[in-house]
Amino acid sequence: MTTRQLGLADAQAVLAAQPFSQVVGARVTEFEPGRATLELDVEEHHRQQFGLVHGGVLAYLVDNAIAFAAGTVLGPALVSTGFGVDLVGNVRDGVLRATARVVHETPTTAVCAVEVSGVHADGSVTVCALAQGGASRTRRGADGAAG
User: Fold this and answer.
1) Cα-Cα-Cα-Cα dihedral sign, residues 132, 138, 144, 147
2) What's the angle, vertex CA 108, arms to CA 74 and CA 98, rounded to 5?
């Protein structure tokens, strides 16, 4: 079976089908072989008690950026297998941008490096998180058949 190359519109449809992603307000802005970017506008409900973006929001972006980048090389039937994240900076506002790139792949797995940055209204950028993690194909193919 030949699988067509997935595009940005396909990735956006997958994200739109994730109820939690709708709550968070994330969007896929880049989806090309070996690389994917997710963004979200920082809102009040993304902040913790000190007004900074909550680490859980950063972890969510890391997890989904890994899944989408891995999906560019493995196809859409995959799950995250884990990640490690270092929180290296803080933001209160602006746009969060998580870019993941595949750094190693096999026919069934991919390992990705991720950078999450806050892009401020003045154009300055604060690196918030650096991470690495992986994803693996599931036993179900994109067409729903076991495989």
Assistant:
1) positive
2) 50
